[in-house]
Amino acid sequence: MRILRALTAGLVIAVAALVSPASALESLSVRPSDEAVDLTRAIERPQGEADRIQVATVPGPDGIVRRIEVRAEKPGDGRQWAVFALKNEGDEQIDRLLVAPRFRFVGSGAFRPDLGETRIRAITASEGLKPERQASSDDDVFAITLDPGATVTFVAELASPKLLQLTLWQPDDYEDRVNSFTLYRGIMLGIAGLLALILTILFVVKGSVMFPAAAALAWAVLFYLGVDFGFWRTILSLQPEADRILRAGGEAAFAATLLVFLFAYLNLNRWHVRYGHVVGVWLVFLVTVVWLAAYDAPLAAAIARVSLAVIASAGFGLVVWLAVKGYDRAVMLAPTWLLLLCWVAASGAAVAGLLSNPLVAPALTGALVLIVLLIGVTVMQHAFAGGAVAQGAASDIERRALAMSGAGDVVWDWDVEADQIHASHELESALGLRRGELQGAAADWAEIVHVADRDRFRAALDTLVSERRGRLSETFRMRGADGRYLWYLLRARPVVGADGEVVRCIGTLLDVSASKTVEERLLANAVRDNLTGLPNRQIFLDRVATALKHDAEDAPAVLVLDVDRRRKLAGGGPGSADTVLITIARRLARLVKPEDTLARLGGDQFGVMLMSERGPQAVAAFAEALKRALGAPIGFGDREVVLSASIGAAPVKLDADGARDAEEVVRNAEIAMYHVRRFGGDHVETFRPSMRAATTDRLLVAGELAQALERGEIVVHYQPIVRLDDRSIAGFEAALRWTHARYGRRPVAEIFAIADDAGLSADFARFAIEQAAAQLRRWQAAVPGEPPLFMSLKLSGELALDPGIGEALIAAVQREELPHGALKLEVREAIVTRDPEHATLALGRLRSLGVGLVLDEFGAGCSNLAELHGLRFAALRLDRSLTRHKAGGDRPAVLRPMIRLARELGMEVAAEGVDADSEAVELFHLGCVYAQGYVFGDQMSEEDCDRLLGLAAPSPARRVMQGAFGRG
């Protein structure tokens, strides 16, 4: 039996010897007095399996060799294992920290450098307590325990194939080391941050390109130190992979900013333009390397380190060459750049592993901060001791004098001891005073200051003298020889003598009359209407709100008056509307009493808060007086305009459920006014709660319509106009369409009616003109022909004669380069006959500049075609009341002679409202040239028109429609 046991023990020892190298079984003795033990050379790297390894332990005091198996937390290639053994020969328990740094600048390598990652994934001990990982952002730290007399074999599973260093630390010594390096790193970061901030401030103060370049270099170094010291990793909670990206990007940024500084400081572009080209290409390459760091950090770091070495070497040669040529900047930079070259050489030796002392990395960090500090000192020396500032100081007085002369400011100087004020003669000329009249004592000089500003002016001077510091900036008025006052801004500061007292005050006077006038005008416009001078809507609401706070038996009333400007004012020509509004304001002002409030609420609307009259009967009587005042004719040359108005009234307080704020009171009066307009206007209505349901929808629609253009809800649709002889498409009529998600598709007439009330009709018209003109240009290019396609525009009411709309039409024709008469404006007959003289002037200019004219809705009233001939319309469009059959099936008897007369006067005749093919045939035989209506196509979108013109594949329904046209 003893022989069998001996054979078994020998076999186990032999197998263990074969599984693990003999050197791994050599244990390293650990003494309690050891502060730090380097285990790097005591580590063996056996080959194991992908997910496990079997290791023979070092024999303990009993001489027995054991065999342990360790399973991997993450399978690898079998080479991720490290084995070492520690022995405690004493009789006390030893607690140590096993530390493996994740990144070491020393030995990291120049090509494909090691930028840091987790080194040890886990450690397994052959006996005793399991090593526990300790929290650390810079190192992999495990706490191990060695029992007295124990020999423990440790198996480490590596997360990285390269184990840089493994050290056994006493916990207190390791903590002291970490704290000391933390303090050192904090000092370095503080110095670098302060230097970067100073250089940035210097960049703000000075405009030379060298200052932002130096500041950028300092910030790049600060960023790199933050990465190297783990500052960004701690603040941003970054993973090791992100830390590697930042490290590579920081090195590339340092190289790039160093190159920029060298170029900017030496001003290399002045020596040869090729220097700028080389540096530019190099800089773009380094910026690309910064982006490369996100994809391949080791490659980016390698390129950055090589570039840094090249920049330092080539830069030193360039600095020496320029210094030999006597370039002062190169001479000042030479010592610093020599130190930088030495730093690069030492860093190269460190990353290559030639310098491995633990103090190498901290020393290189401190040297880098010192180099940047020297660069900053060099830049500041150039700024404050070199040519730039010294040369400027020599001519500072001359520059200030030229600046004062160029600015046109008046020099103001008060000799306090002699009490004499001197001002430039330009001030006397501006005020119309005699030469020397402003030279005198301060008391006499202040007499020309406005009475309201005189005390403030004196107090400001006394304060400046008594305080003996600060700056004076005061605005006041000065009287000229003609009695008018000009505003001046006095900016001055005291000059203190050797005894600490103020000997003089000197500064400048600046004429600010224009800006003061603008300021007063803006203040007035904030509360007053700039046309009529009446309070605006905001002031009116404030007055109503004040009335709401006072209780009274008979509450005051609010009246809102709206003038029918569209029918009465447009015929007076340009500027007539403003004249009428001023006349209306004067008439209304004569009716109100001092306690009442009259305001212009906007557009043609006026508001009255009636405080002088109380009770329904008195309010109604006052409203009738308003109507009578407006009804009086207003003369324009040889003609008169009679106005009418819709008036809505509402009491400030209705009842417990009535208006609760000023906005609601005015809104109630506006609802009553809109109620009047719905029934023809020209009378007075008092608000009733039942009116809200009938009017609120229209008000809501008006509010949505104001934003419809911005939201793209307003579109232009087109209705085809055909030639009756061959049924080909001659052109289109453009019209606006609005489809709202809640209100649905609104009729065109309602859109323009609401737009007129809201003051938006001109904006909609311009939008329609721009869209239609651009669309016509596209269709003419896609469908050439002679005559070309035309586009007809039907605008709302009097907009056809509006000067602004006319300019928009002319601009559209010229911008799109449309043929003469291709863009046509439809003008209603009723608008033309109302004021033929004004229409002749307005439409004649449009026609001469390329806009075609079409007389629309002809025959809707009493027409005289001969009188309209003088306006030279190119075409005449018959009203649909003439083109449709009468009840008996016959057309109006006047249709044939009207068409014949129009053709004899040189006008082409068009018919609208053609709904049947038989009607089109009959109208063709009567002499109509064009027609539009349901039979030829309703208003349609741009895409449908493209299919109609053959520019896109037509739908089956559209093919049927095209069959009736012959072509197009």
Automatic annotation (TrEMBL):
<dbReference type="Pfam" id="PF07696">
    <property type="entry name" value="7TMR-DISMED2"/>
</dbReference>
<feature type="domain" description="GGDEF">
    <location>
        <begin position="554"/>
        <end position="689"/>
    </location>
</feature>
<feature type="transmembrane region" description="Helical">
    <location>
        <begin position="183"/>
        <end position="204"/>
    </location>
</feature>
<feature type="signal peptide">
    <location>
        <begin position="1"/>
        <end position="24"/>
    </location>
</feature>
<keyword id="KW-0472">Membrane</keyword>
<dbReference type="InterPro" id="IPR035965">
    <property type="entry name" value="PAS-like_dom_sf"/>
</dbReference>
<dbReference type="Pfam" id="PF00563">
    <property type="entry name" value="EAL"/>
</dbReference>
<dbReference type="InterPro" id="IPR035919">
    <property type="entry name" value="EAL_sf"/>
</dbReference>
<dbReference type="InterPro" id="IPR001610">
    <property type="entry name" value="PAC"/>
</dbReference>
<feature type="transmembrane region" description="Helical">
    <location>
        <begin position="252"/>
        <end position="268"/>
    </location>
</feature>
<dbReference type="InterPro" id="IPR013655">
    <property type="entry name" value="PAS_fold_3"/>
</dbReference>
<dbReference type="Pfam" id="PF00990">
    <property type="entry name" value="GGDEF"/>
</dbReference>
<keyword id="KW-1133">Transmembrane helix</keyword>
<dbReference type="InterPro" id="IPR001633">
    <property type="entry name" value="EAL_dom"/>
</dbReference>
<dbReference type="Pfam" id="PF08447">
    <property type="entry name" value="PAS_3"/>
</dbReference>
<keyword id="KW-0732">Signal</keyword>
<dbReference type="InterPro" id="IPR000700">
    <property type="entry name" value="PAS-assoc_C"/>
</dbReference>
<dbReference type="InterPro" id="IPR011622">
    <property type="entry name" value="7TMR_DISM_rcpt_extracell_dom2"/>
</dbReference>
<feature type="transmembrane region" description="Helical">
    <location>
        <begin position="300"/>
        <end position="324"/>
    </location>
</feature>
<feature type="domain" description="PAC">
    <location>
        <begin position="472"/>
        <end position="524"/>
    </location>
</feature>
<keyword id="KW-0812">Transmembrane</keyword>
<feature type="transmembrane region" description="Helical">
    <location>
        <begin position="336"/>
        <end position="355"/>
    </location>
</feature>
<feature type="domain" description="PAS">
    <location>
        <begin position="396"/>
        <end position="468"/>
    </location>
</feature>
<protein>
    <submittedName>
        <fullName>EAL domain-containing protein</fullName>
    </submittedName>
</protein>
<dbReference type="InterPro" id="IPR052155">
    <property type="entry name" value="Biofilm_reg_signaling"/>
</dbReference>
<dbReference type="InterPro" id="IPR000014">
    <property type="entry name" value="PAS"/>
</dbReference>
<dbReference type="InterPro" id="IPR043128">
    <property type="entry name" value="Rev_trsase/Diguanyl_cyclase"/>
</dbReference>
<dbReference type="InterPro" id="IPR029787">
    <property type="entry name" value="Nucleotide_cyclase"/>
</dbReference>
<feature type="transmembrane region" description="Helical">
    <location>
        <begin position="367"/>
        <end position="390"/>
    </location>
</feature>
<feature type="transmembrane region" description="Helical">
    <location>
        <begin position="275"/>
        <end position="294"/>
    </location>
</feature>
<feature type="domain" description="EAL">
    <location>
        <begin position="698"/>
        <end position="953"/>
    </location>
</feature>
<feature type="transmembrane region" description="Helical">
    <location>
        <begin position="211"/>
        <end position="232"/>
    </location>
</feature>
<dbReference type="InterPro" id="IPR000160">
    <property type="entry name" value="GGDEF_dom"/>
</dbReference>
